[in-house]
Structure to design on (352 residues):
């Protein structure tokens, strides 16, 4: 089923509550038909940005455009109902007294095609046969799909999703988010997801924007955020991260675990980002150096936490092994060159 889609453009958008800034000089463009995942901790301004795009809040400064149309600026304001934006909330916000079909139809004008639109949406999300059911009789995943169908039924230009999977258990969450990603890809709808879950952001976003205190720390493809984070704070938000001190000489650094190749040239004292899969370990006989502090089984791998003086290193091991807490190991680096940061980064974040 065809859908009208449009890109999103925010330019120097600012917002505040009373005198407290919550979004500062925020600029981002989401191309038509693409998805942006906004990743960051609670209170960093992610939901406020969705409200600004939807028209539920008005920016203090800056410009918001949907496609070619400016919907918010210093001298222009388009009401939420005239923006053709769909919303899916964290709690799904279904009407408990209305059937599934009536929930989906709620935002549609009465017309000859009314019933067909509802049928098409329920077919799209795999809920044909559930038209007369009440939300309370559905599973969490089914309720989430009803909420999605209701948001998509008016064929919005833009779809905004605010932590839409946080109320689902982990197994169901993975299944439903895959279904949602497939639907949005099929319809080519421009979308913005808000999440504090790194795995979810990487799975859903063509690009990921990492937010901190109302500002955009970095935006890029998921693999860029993971392997080339702009600073240590982004590195921690973007996945499991260990840091080790080293002395850099160009594109290599000497460290306590040996020489590590660097992604860019550096000089002097640095801290080097190490992802769990970039380290390999081998048990040693002597009782000195690096030892196993903790072992966790994650299903897809084992996570080994190593103690090296004041440094803790996290290692991913795929195969079964015999290491136990207190065993001593040799650690070495493998894989692509690592990212290194000076002792104090350009944005003033101290490395600890």
């Amino acid at each position: 089923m065809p859908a009208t889609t449009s890109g999103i453009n925010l330019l120097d958008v600012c917002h505040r509550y009373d005198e407290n800034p919550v979004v500062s000089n925020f600029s981002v463009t989401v191309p038509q038909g693409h998805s942006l995942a906004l990743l960051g901790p609670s209170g960093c301004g992610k939901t406020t940005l969705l409200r600004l795009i939807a028209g539920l809040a008005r920016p203090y400064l800056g410009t918001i455009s949907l496609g070619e149309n400016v919907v918010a600026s210093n001298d222009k304001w388009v009401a939420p109902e005239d923006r053709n934006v769909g919303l899916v909330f964290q709690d799904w916000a279904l009407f408990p007294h209305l059937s599934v079909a009536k929930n989906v139809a709620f935002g549609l004008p009465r017309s000859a095609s009314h019933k067909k639109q509802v049928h098409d949406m329920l077919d799209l999300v795999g809920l044909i046969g559930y038209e007369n059911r009440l939300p309370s009789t559905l599973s969490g995943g089914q309720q989430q799909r009803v909420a999605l169908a209701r948001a998509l039924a008016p064929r919005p230009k833009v779809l905004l999703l605010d932590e839409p999977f946080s109320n689902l258990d982990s197994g169901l969450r993975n299944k439903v988010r895959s279904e949602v990603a497939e639907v949005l890809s099929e319809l080519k709808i421009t979308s913005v997801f808000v999440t504090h879950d790194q795995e979810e952001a990487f799975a859903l976003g063509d690009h990921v924007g990492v937010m901190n205190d109302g500002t955009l720390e970095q935006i890029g493809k998921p693999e860029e955020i993971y392997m080339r984070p702009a600073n240590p704070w982004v590195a921690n938000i973007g996945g499991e991260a260990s840091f080790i001190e080293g002395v850099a000489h160009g594109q290599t650094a000497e460290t306590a675990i040996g020489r590590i190749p660097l992604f860019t040239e550096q000089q002097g004292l640095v801290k080097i980002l190490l992802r769990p899969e970039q380290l390999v370990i081998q048990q040693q006989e002597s009782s000195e150096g690096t030892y196993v502090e903790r072992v966790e089984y994650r299903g897809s791998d084992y996570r080994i936490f190593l103690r090296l003086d004041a440094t803790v290193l996290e290692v991913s091991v795929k195969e079964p092994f015999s290491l136990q807490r207190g065993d001593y190991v040799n650690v070495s680096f493998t894989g692509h060159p690592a990212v290194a940061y000076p002792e104090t980064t350009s944005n003033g974040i101290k490395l600890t």
